[in-house]
Amino acid sequence: MKRYSAVSAAVLATALLLTGCGQDTADDNAAGTAQPTAGSTSQGTDLGMHGSSSAAPAEEHNSADAMFAQMMIPHHEQAVEMSDMMLAKDGLDPQISQLAEDIKSAQAPEIEKMTGWLKAWGEPMEMSGGHGMPGMMSEEDLAKLEAAQGDEASRLFLTQMIEHHEGAVEMAEEEAANGSDPEAVALAESVVETQTAEIKKMQELLADL
Predict the structure, then answer these.
(1) What does the buried/exposed string (b/e) look like for 60-86 if buried means 16 or more CB atoms within 10 Å of the residue's CB?
(2) Domain identity same for 108 and 166
(3) pTM of structure
């Protein structure tokens, strides 16, 4: 009897021990299962945040931005053409040649920049409807500039470029007031500042001729 009781007690103790281990294992498994759930929730939250970030609409351009680029590209191209005409002439006043270099080096990269905008926006390179651009020279004006030499060429270049710059400033002010794309508006403001200063410089050079 005593031996039977001892054996029963041993069996009972073993059973209790196994039950405790099983409970610990279950708890550990439950905790292990809960951890990935928390991680999944965190990951899901992160993905949701990234998804909402990429879905946020970018700054959109408007018709004023498109028109500014469409008009300013050929306007800049003509300024570069006029500058090249002057730089091809012999015996040019160093101040005039430097001005022509400055205009060309500033406006050529801006042409590329605005061309890139129109492509990115899905806008045509040219406007429909034949809008005129203020300050543009006629073919006759350009022919006179190309044929002129010496001080006559310098005087004609300054006179034409002052008018040309005034037209650019007018268009840039319109964009600065009505544009939507931050880069386009920033370029317009830069054009106003830079070309207004160049107009003043050209007026001074013209007065000294």
Answers:
(1) ebeebbbbbbbbbbebbebbbebbebb
(2) yes
(3) 0.71
